[in-house]
Amino acid sequence: MGTKNKPKNGILLHIVLMGYVIISLYPLFWAFQNSFKRHVDIIVSPFAPIKNFTFQNYIDAWNTSNVNVYLANSFLVSTVSSVATVFLAAMTAYALVRIPYKLLNAAIMGILLLAIMVPGATILVPLYSFVRKFEQYFGFQIYDTYMSLIFPYVTFGLAISVVIIKAFMSSMPKELEEAAVMDGLNIYGLFFRIVLPLCLPALVSVFIVNYLNNWNEFIMANLLLSKENLRTLAVGVAAFKDMLNTNYGGLYAATMYSVIPVVVVYIFLQDRIIEGLTSGSLKG
Asked: Which of 153, 199, 249, 269 could join 57 via S-S bond, C-beta 3.0 to 4.6 A?
């Protein structure tokens, strides 16, 4: 009886999941098709199929609304922040795995886990105050610069990145490192030539996760940057309603500029993301 019920349960599960996928993807599909409509067609029939196909919305958004500048800013900030996060997290994770101070390591891991649980919105006010007064503390200003986003992005991404990479490093055999030391490698050669290549799946996954989070982040980018030429794409798209006088075709085209790169990255690298996020638990 139990065997006979399994196919039915599997079909029901697939129907439920397919319904969830359709509900989740329909708003994206709706925005995508409206990005190829004229403004008047969207106003008259926003849910109707495309009647007068046009690519002009994308051209106008790119040439007249600074989308190219916002896109470059998002790429720069997201890439630099993600690389710095991965590098610092890898060094921290390796220290936690190999330094034999269990109580200290446990205390540090507890702090990192606590940092993961703290909602980012609760520290926006002190973060803003710190960034504005950064020059008083360190002698140079970061407010209204790329660094005002890079520093917080690295800080917010560091805790979960350390936890993921540490789980992967914990499964690495010590014999490889001992053999490398016997061959004359110092601690830096050991880390860069042995440890990092072995941890590449976890590092790539952590980089991608941080990159997508940084790319889509809106609140801090809107709070810490006031210059238009420094805006990221997420903030720039939010301002399109006023900039384009509620030109919905241009608004949807700008939204697609923000969404399509993330979707493409995830489609091609989803297996690597899942592999890196689960490898530590599977090997441990």
From this structure: 249
